[in-house]
Amino acid sequence: MDDLEKATTKTPGLVERTFHISEQGSTVKREILAGLTTFVSMAYILFVNPSILGAAGMNKGAVFTATAISAILGCVLMGVLANYPISIAAGLGDNAFFTFSVVLGMGIPWQKAMAGVFVASVLFTILSFFKIREVVIDAIPQDLKYAMAAGIGIFIAFVGLQGGGLIVADKSSLVAIGSFTVPTTWLTIAGIFIIAILMAKKVPGSIFIGIFATAVLGLATGLIKMPTHLISLAPSMKPTFGVGVANLAALSDLQMWAVVLIFLLVAFFDTAGTLIGLAQQAGIMKDNKMPRIGKALMADSLSMLAGSVMGMTPTSAYVESSAGIAVGGKTGLTAVTTGFFFFVSLLFSPLLTVVTDQVTAPALIVVGVLMASSMREIHWDQFELAFPAFITIIGMPLTYNISYGIAFGFLTYPILMTAAGRRKEVNYIMWILLFVFILLLYILNILH
């Protein structure tokens, strides 16, 4: 143990009083290293999020800045309020739903769709404040939670395969393999192998390093144009800031309330499973319960609300926080450190021109693999659980709509559990959600 670590182990000041570092058996040095590790592992979202929301017509520069600031806010709130080594940033499943299901699928302009995000964020914060969110989350069967994560993962991977040119539309079979005569397709393939090899070797920050290496390869081969400069002031958020609030009149349309409901439900369940899994890894769980979970959910809610004002889709706890926890992060100082590095990243927006769809596609595919791994926890030997989980998973990519996949699972679970003689195991909230989703599917179909 070096002098710095000895000193920081005994530091009593404001940092110690806020994060209880010594009490948790950690040091300031270790927490900062963990925060840096987490940042490197999840920094890809700075480039992936503008790419996905840019497909909806949003300004990529503004989205880049909003992504960084919402991450800063989320990480600091999580660290200070809940004292957890868990970081928050824009959720990949939420931005995919926004772009591909709402804007492109339902034909709703992104400005109006952002109004739906804002209202959902307000409702989300209210539900978290009154702890209703905790009650509903507890009512959802674990198998469906795993299925939702896996389905979103496969959907995201499908988006990546499309963006990278590996899968294209086909009139006879709906989809087909892309052309290998297109040079940029090979850039995607190279990126997949780079990230996959790094992941297999368990290199910290594999996805971020892979994005960087793929971009460098693209520049070296002339497939990507060199940026005019590397560092600049953060782009203005003016193109997206306050757009959701300014378009609240759009909620007079019944279709928009379907959007609000879906955003509310997706965001509702998105963070819970990740928080619980990471808390188990960090040794935070006590008696199978997560202390301070109310504060953690409030941190998530407030960052989501602030992000919606800036022009951001919902934020979420990041599974990549496990990388920081693995190197010793145990307190909120880890999350606050991650937020600090997101602040530094605001200077590097010119790199957005370098990080093309072919560069981000491998990251989406690999993240899809990580999310799909939750399928191993599903009880496949019990059909009444397996079928709702399976139809949730395949429903998302095959309908190209995350909300439909979720609806399929929630509609079939109570019915099959009752048929199997397990009606008493179905929480009454699941029956309420069944009718909510029947109404939702009806609205989506008549207004699509």
Automatic annotation (TrEMBL):
Pfam families: Xan_ur_permease (PF00860). GO terms for molecular function: purine nucleobase transmembrane transporter activity. It is found in: Cell membrane. One of its GO terms (cellular component) is plasma membrane. Keywords: Cell membrane, Membrane, Transmembrane, Transmembrane helix, Transport. InterPro entries: Azg-like, Azg-like_bact_archaea, NCS2. It is a multi-pass membrane protein. The chain crosses the membrane at residues 32-56, 62-81, 88-108, 114-132, 144-168, 174-200, 207-234, 254-276, 297-319, 331-352, 359-375, 387-416, 428-447. Belongs to the nucleobase:cation symporter-2 (NCS2) (TC 2.A.40) family. Azg-like subfamily. PANTHER family: GUANINE_HYPOXANTHINE PERMEASE PBUG, XANTHINE/URACIL PERMEASE C887.17-RELATED. This is Xanthine/uracil/vitamin C permease. The lineage of its organism: Bacteria, Bacillati, Bacillota, Bacilli, Lactobacillales. The gene is azgA.
